[in-house]
Amino acid sequence: MKKTFVIILSLIGILVFGQENKMTEIDNQSKSIDSDTELIESNFDLTNESRLKVWHKENRIFKIVQEMNVDYGEIKSEIYLVGNKPVKIIESESTNFFLTDSIAKIKGYSIDIEENFRAVSYITNWNKKQRELKVSGEPTEEKNISYELNKYIGIIRKAENLINE
Question: How far apart are CA 160 and CA 155, in angstroms?
Answer without folding.
Answer: 9
